Protein 1
Amino acid sequence: MDNYREYVGNVHVHSVYSDGVATYQHIAAAAATAHLNFIIVTDHNVRPEGLEGYRAAVEGAAAVLVLSGEEVHDVRRRPQANHLLVYGVEQELAPYSFGSTQGLIQAARQRDGICYIAHPVEKSSPVSPDLAAIPWTTWPPEGVHGIELWNYMSEFKGLLWSKVVAPFHAFFPEMGIRGPYRATLRLWDELLQQGYRIAAIGNADAHGTTYSMGPIKRAIFPYEYLFRCVNTHILTQSPLTGDVATDRALVYEALRAGRTWVGYDLPHSTRGFRCLAQSGSTSAVPGEELRRLGALIINVTLPARGEIHLRRDGKIIKRVVGTSLKHTSEEAGIYRVEVYRRFRGHRVGWIFTSPIYVT
Ligand SMILES: [Zn+2]
Ligand SMILES: [Zn+2]
């Protein structure tokens, strides 16, 4: 078995430093109540200094590691596009955002930054001019570590396709939330086939803003609710220690390597999910490469029943309904796992792993 440790976090969150309504302390409290281990706050074009640390925000709950990243884009660009999530850089990158997106990625990489494309595919909503689509338009994405495969608030925006349905989804979001867009999954598989190594993260993109329509007012959505929905699960090389510098390095190393999966933790927690590929005496988890030394064996185990799809080079090669999947093969390729389950009368996406690159 692998010796990695699993931690659950949300790595796309807004605070009062940009257009979110919550302070770092409030965000930490919401994360602690939702049993997250870490949070990376990613305000728009700003990275506040001196706010990172473990915050024991709720009595009886474990302290949450709160880090500061940045969601960077060229504010002068019309229409808006190309939101880039950057982690691990201790300076603001907004000054490098003007003009070329590729230049921004380069500036981040030169500073050892970790780059993930935020909400690569978006649908706009006619309900408000503030809800225009902000997709990624600069392909192929040279130099990025991964994409945000599933963004909860971005999918929610796509549900608001008319003023009639908007209040329904505002009150019963789980009736509409389904999973990553097919277009995003297709795009991802195409890029992987072109040889790009692209990991997957999934996030809330929480702002805590209030939605109002006539007499109806509702916070869309409280941070705590969102932290129980779409999260990024990471596998670290050793246990978190409680020391901020050490643990920051462990979290960022996992994101850089792409040892991640996206979990929709609301229907059922995805903690405990495992996916391991083995060949001879070597093994690999999502995000890693595995050189074949004979037969390839892939083992998937779930914390509860689900519909497991094993994909190689984008195509489903095995489908199992249950709590585990085992597959033996000789073939090289890019393997990844998707899991679906029933929730509130619908089939919803539950788990999406980063790829294992079998050579
Ligand atoms: Zn964004
Ligand atoms: Zn955002």
Protein 2
Amino acid sequence: MSIKRVGIIGSGIMGSGVAECAAVNGFEVVLRSRQRATADAMLAGLEKSLGRAVEKERMTAADRDATLSRVTVTSDLGDLADADLVLESIVEDLAAKKHLFTELDRICKDGAILATNTSTLPVIEMAMNTGRPELVCGIHFFNPAPVMSLVEIVRPLTASDETIREARAFAEACGKQAVEVKDQAGFIVNALLFPYLNNAVRLLESGVASRDDIDTAMKGGCNFPMGPLALLDLVGLDTSLAIIDALYEEFRDPNYAAVPLLRRMVAAEQLGRKTGKGFFDYHKK
Ligand SMILES: NC(=O)c1ccc[n+]([C@@H]2O[C@H](COP(=O)([O-])OP(=O)(O)OC[C@H]3O[C@@H](n4cnc5c(N)ncnc54)[C@H](O)[C@@H]3O)[C@@H](O)[C@H]2O)c1
């Protein structure tokens, strides 16, 4: 594999997690957030997470120090110029991502792979906003990235075999199991998962069962580690709504139409864990 230096863009849930996976597994990582203060907070978060790993004896102090020495943070996109791979994890919004890919194409060195962590959006539209569509693909990590074992490698029509091979090698070097999927909304996991999550909100909205009973039922009845409403809170309700809307946009299947309660909760900024309130309350008591 020729990837050594990785640029990660976005300081939200996924940017931080993916940066940790890459740094722990020996890649040089440049973390970019629009604001310097958030970039610094990401580094502090990484230090804390690795500190916990040392306490639990899952990592040595020497490995923690070596990992941190491979990470730099910046608010300047220009610092990604010499990255071999740039993986963006910014907001699930096609216009914002297309704009970013145009910028990255201008800034990044020839031959660098430009990848998106999008959950559902058409990767081809990002690829066609660059002058190097053969070097663009999806590398879709799951949440929380350091824990979840799967990565979907998303192949738009334009990607070269070499790009897909390199993306897969990167995911595997991060200790993940990679699967390959065509660039179709939802890929594998979210195409199957989100109709289920949306229907859980529908059950709640129509009063068929309570929040706690819906989650208890799916844990006890299907042996799922989390109930659907707690999982929506973990993913983020804004990101979840964007995913469901993208599925509807692609397939026009009524089963993919977002339940009004979900849309109302996003409007109320009840986004789940990240804002302290979603279907459950996360404010410290
Ligand atoms: N949350 C999940 O479970 C999950 C899982 C896999 C993939 N993803 C994908 O990862 C990406 C990020 O999701 P997240 O959960 O980390 O979201 P998040 O809300 O935690 O973070 C989004 C980040 O994007 C930044 N941002 C917002 N608007 C921007 C813009 N116009 N330009 C640049 N940056 C901007 C925000 O400041 C923030 O740092 C999305 O594409 C999402 O679909 C999310």
